[in-house]
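Internal tracking record. Fields below are filled automatically when a chain is submitted to the structure queue. Please do not edit lines marked as system-generated. If the sequence contains nonstandard residues, flag them in the REMARKS field before resubmitting.
Queue: standard
Priority: normal
Entity type: single polypeptide chain
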Amino acid sequence: MAVEKLRKEETLEMRRRLIGQSCRLFYSDDPVKIVRARGQYLFDENGERYLDCISNVHHVGHCHPSITAAAAVQMDLLNTNSRFLHDNIVTYADRLAATLPEKLCVFYFVNSGSEANDLALRLAQQYTQHEDVIVLDHAYHGHLMSLIDISPYKFRKLAGQKEWVHVAPLPDTYRGVYGEDHPNPGQAYADTVKDLIEEVHRKGRKISAFFAESLPSVGGQIILPRGYSTKVAEYVRSAGGVFVADEVQTGFGRVGSHFWAFQLHGEGFCPDIVTMGKPMGNGHPLACVATTVEIAGAFTANGVEYFNTFGGNPVSCAIGLALLDVIEKEDLRGNAQRVGAHLKDLLTKIQTRHQVIGDVRGVGLFVGVELVTDRERKTPATETAARVVKRYRVVILTTYSQIFLYSVSAEWFVDITPCSFYIRLKEDDKICISTDGPWENVVKFKPPMCFSMEDAELVVQCIDRVLTDMKASDS
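SYSTEM-GENERATED OUTPUT FOLLOWS
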């Protein structure tokens, strides 16, 4: 039976009435109703197209035909409890193993990044027989209670820090204690973890794990300084703990040069546990934990069976296999490297024209633009960042010779010339982008991996224009 389409106003009213209000919408002051998507583009109910700069879940592009075909074929054949013997789960695990260091060879399939991180925490605590965890400041690892407990981004707004959780400084070389001018910021930040371990030991406690995103995202699109993870792993293992790399945001080639972001630290570095999620199912709920034979053995030895009804089911694994094929066949890692470098270069160029751009950082298609009101003090420009990411519309208010740009959310007008109107993006080239960081002042880019050179040029042109218009309106 066909489902009757609702008007946008009806959908919004039902959403407000039926869905918990803590489940927020993008652009909540003027929500966009998306009804279909393809590649790096989203389309609303009127057929208007939006460039998607934030859907890192739809890794190889929205509704990729190879992914949807693989899902449909397997769904028509079989989808069942993961405890039945089936080829897909072992074939997929074997393909994943080929992308990882040799010692990461045991896999547990789950449905979400949160489930993966929760299981990683259990594995670490079972293996070490210790409870305490070290995490980075501003970290976010998921929405389960166990993960809120190890996510400063969340627990500081709720019940607060548990006694078994210890927070290390975020290794941010832009606004942290040790900047890019430090002779060895990686070592300096790693030593803060060493100091923290010693403090934990003085309290008579023991570390089970150091838990960190390979590239902290909610923390503000942070690139960890060279050598940091290697030294931290050394300190943590010496204390009897394990190193957990959260690749839920950054895995599957987003950094371009490598398949996993932790590999940026060199061939000699290998975590003890790796978690993955968001991109691996291209929108389908699929996630995983990879670990060593030793850690998996300790988990088995506790005598409690672990099973996940849907994790690694035949359809999920068929989708996962198809995604790996697409990454390879379409050279999406190479694309991430080329387009990401071009995007950073373009953003760095407009940084010279806009004092509000304090820092441009990133690797591959993981890029952040930090906005500040004062470059010396690095004061977060939170309001400016919010204005940049809002959806703009062109409205002709008087005659051909007098055109205004109207911001739907901020309710301010900027007088612009007909010439600047023509170099605007055409009206259907709307851009979906968002912010992150402790002060929500970092404009972030984590687009589908099919993001193109032209897309990069389009979005930077738009940011350049919006910042120029804002500067004019504020003067």
